[in-house]
TrEMBL record:
Residues 172-181 have a biased composition (Basic residues). Residues 123-151 have a biased composition (Polar residues). The keyword Metal-binding applies. The keyword Repeat applies. It comes from Monodelphis domestica (Gray short-tailed opossum). The lineage of its organism: Eukaryota, Metazoa, Chordata, Craniata, Vertebrata. PANTHER family: C2H2 ZINC FINGER CGI-62-RELATED (PTHR13555), ZINC FINGER C2HC DOMAIN-CONTAINING PROTEIN 1B (PTHR13555:SF36). This is Zinc finger C2HC-type containing 1B. Residues 123-181 are annotated as: Disordered. InterPro entries: ZC2HC1A/B-like, Znf_C2HC_C3H.
Length: 181
């Protein structure tokens, strides 16, 4: 049971504790209480309902074979803070860190159009140099191997024209290389 005397005793205890610190009850007013943000549950609820409706429309369109409807527009969270440099949105603690970082990055960037055009031109020139690769040179050993392969393939074609019983059965016969004296 809580009655008036218990509440008074509790109050007197807090005053007696604060007397030693030099602070009294009226010093601890609502100034020190952190402000509670206004809840935006109604907007979140409406966004949720709209998302469900658009999902239903998509499933109906898929079943009927129609083209999909456009997605719902993204909702902007009013609790987020927009970065003035990159226009992205963050919560309070992340925004404090990000805005300082983005400010430093923006100061390092070059926004001079002449310098930007020069950079683009040098990039295009580098790409042109990379794309103009030289054809690989064929050494004499590689050249003879290629010639031998083409000759072997032409012999195989002429042998298939004769249609020997081995070739019709689908079994490939591996020929041993002949030695020349």
């Amino acid at each position: 049971q809580i009655n008036g005397s218990d509440e008074r005793n509790a109050w007197e205890r807090t005053i007696s504790i604060r007397k030693g610190t030099g602070q009294y009850a009226k010093d601890f007013s609502t100034k020190n209480v952190p402000t509670v943000k206004k809840s935006n549950w109604r907007q979140q609820h409406e966004d949720f309902i709209n998302a469900i409706r658009s999902a239903k429309q998509c499933t109906i369109a898929i079943k009927e074979g129609r083209p999909l409807p456009p997605p719902p527009p993204p909702s902007i969270n009013p609790d987020y803070i927009q970065c003035p440099y990159c226009n992205r949105r963050f919560n309070e603690t992340a925004a404090e860190r990000h805005i300082n970082f983005c400010k430093d990055q923006a100061s390092r960037r070059v926004f001079n159009p002449a310098q930007k055009a020069a950079k683009l031109a040098s990039r295009a020139q580098n790409k042109a140099q990379v794309n103009s690769k030289k054809e690989p040179t064929v050494t004499s050993a590689v050249g003879t191997l290629l010639q031998n392969r083409t000759m072997d393939s032409s012999k195989d074609r002429s042998a298939k024209a004769g249609a020997s019983p081995e070739s019709t059965s689908g079994i490939k016969v591996k020929k041993s290389p002949s030695k020349k004296d």
